[in-house]
Design goal:
This protein has about 80 residues and is of the alpha+beta class. Helix content is about 30%, strand content about 50%. It has two helices and four strands.
């Protein structure tokens, strides 16, 4: 699985990368046909946004979450 994690308007820490990769491992157990994943983490004032674009064999999924904390946005 090819994974790209990008931060907009801030630097993504190693702890955040590990947290995202841990969540992706859990998803990969249920959907083992993940080809590529693009994760975008962004901050706009007090809103923390996590977006994920997942390319599966034959399908593309996009999800996003906005929370007051980046780790909460990643968890959702």
């Amino acid at each position: 699985m090819d994974t790209r994690i990008t931060g907009l308007h801030f630097d993504v820490t190693e702890a955040m990368k590990n947290h995202v990769l841990g969540k992706l491992e859990r998803i990969n157990r249920h959907a083992g046909n993940i080809i590529r994943t693009n994760i975008t983490l962004s901050v706009d004032k007090l809103k923390h946004k996590a977006e994920a674009s997942v390319h599966l064999a034959g399908k593309d999924l996009h999800v996003e979450s906005v929370e007051s904390d980046m780790y909460a946005a990643i968890d959702v």
